[in-house]
Write a structure and sequence with these properties.
- With 379 residues, this protein is of the alpha/beta class.
- It contains 15 helices and eleven strands.
- The strands form three sheets. Strands 6-5-4-8-7-9 form a six-stranded parallel β-sheet, sandwiched between helices. A three-stranded antiparallel β-sheet has the order 1-2-3. Strands 10-11 form a two-stranded antiparallel sheet.
- Helix 4 packs parallel to helix 7, helix 9 crosses helix 10 and helix 9 runs parallel beside helix 13.
- The longest helix has 20 residues.
Length: 379
């Protein structure tokens, strides 16, 4: 009996209880139900009769196995998948209603425990949904679109035929909260991931890396110094001539139509939640940099601001270098929450001034392909 009570104190984080380890053992014997193996078998201890122990019946979630079998045999439609999710939701409500929570559990501890139970309960459904998505990708022929991870390792900046330089300017460190620094570090990591999956990756630079951002990445992203990108402590203006820099700003009046191999295209590494409107544009003008905006409004309208995350801007550029079509690159990158709507009777061939394709974006194409692309004017 003493052992069970001591175990309860050690495993209090599993039940969400905020009782201290030295809590009165008599109180624990009266009320605490110990979840030893996290498999919904609860041992109830009665202090009035220490020789008697009673094991409560397991409350097993009633999962519909037909859906799993059906998921293995064929591809479920989205309606069927939504209906299956609704079943899980209903069954989880019943499961929680019959669940025996510890009597001394706090409100916050109960909330955390329910969250953990929900994760375990919905795990079979998540596996089912993952199988359905995989089968859909295979049926649509998308499964072969991405190279294997082993092959990705052979794509290096040094060997890339794409010499277009993209710089993420991290000079806004002092203007961001810690949570925004965390988001920015994840966005930089996402840019690196996108780039290393490309057969001809862009020449990605991260400038003025220091302060809170550097501390965050050193603490939580081991090995980031080994990434195949150019990480510099110097600022943008120290590394490049002002006349060679084109700063991408949503407020710029200049429309970006194509890329110049002699220029460096800078993206502001800034997560501000609209608290510093136009700051990147103001800094670009003050430093004497050129500036331009992505041609989003030439093809789409947005229900929100046209300011995008660092990784979304980089992904649009990266995709344009392959597709040579701004409309395709923007449509396949911007998330639905931005309220993207195509302009009626719009065609990507006519909304951006006709220019020759940039050699910096796809120098691996043959001369014959470049002439054909130029004739089509897919910009």
């Amino acid at each position: 009996m003493e052992t069970k009570v001591d175990d309860a104190c050690e495993l209090k984080h599993h039940t969400g209880s905020l009782l201290s380890a030295d809590a009165d053992k008599q109180t624990l014997e009266d009320g605490l139900k110990i979840n030893d193996s996290f498999n919904n078998n609860f041992i109830v201890e009665n202090s009035e009769n220490k020789n008697e122990t009673e094991t409560s019946k397991s409350i097993e979630p009633q999962v519909n196995n037909e859906s799993r079998d059906e998921g293995k045999k064929g591809i479920l439609t989205q309606e069927e998948l939504d209906a299956e999710h609704k079943k899980y939701e209903d069954e989880f409500v019943v499961y929680i209603e019959n669940y025996q929570f510890p009597e001394d559990i706090s409100k916050n501890g109960k909330r955390k425990l329910i969250k953990n139970l929900r994760y375990e309960f919905f795990r079979p459904f998540k596996r089912l949904a993952h199988r359905v998505r995989a089968k859909r990708k295979k049926a649509e022929g998308e499964g072969k679109s991405e190279p294997s991870r082993k092959r990705c390792k052979t794509y290096s900046l040094k060997d890339s035929q794409n010499k277009l330089r993209i710089a993420i300017d991290c000079s806004y460190d002092d203007l961001m909260l810690d949570k925004d620094i965390t988001k920015l570090s994840s966005q930089v990591q996402r840019c690196y991931s996108i780039n290393r999956h490309k057969e001809n990756p862009l020449q990605l630079h991260v400038t003025q890396m220091g302060g809170k951002l550097l501390n965050r990445m050193e603490k939580h992203m081991d090995g980031f110094t080994n990434w195949d990108i150019h990480i510099k402590r110097e600022s943008l203006i120290e590394l490049f001539k002002p006349e060679d820099v084109v700063y991408l700003c949503a407020e710029s009046e200049n429309l970006l139509t194509d890329f110049d191999a002699d220029k460096v295209y800078a993206i502001g590494g800034f997560v501000d939640h609209n608290s510093h409107k136009g700051l990147s544009y103001q800094r670009a003008v003050a430093a004497g940099f050129g500036h331009a905006r992505l041609p989003i409004d030439s093809f789409f309208t947005l229900s929100t601001r046209k300011v995008l995350t660092v990784c979304h801007v980089f992904e649009i550029i990266s995709m344009f270098c392959v597709s040579k079509d701004w409309k395709v690159a923007i449509e396949n990158t911007i998330p639905e929450r931005k309220g993207l709507e195509a302009i009626a009777d719009n065609n990507s061939k006519y909304n951006v001034p006709e220019t020759k394709p940039s050699k910096s974006c796809d120098s691996s194409q043959s001369a014959e392909q470049e002439v054909d692309t130029s004739n089509k004017a897919e910009l």
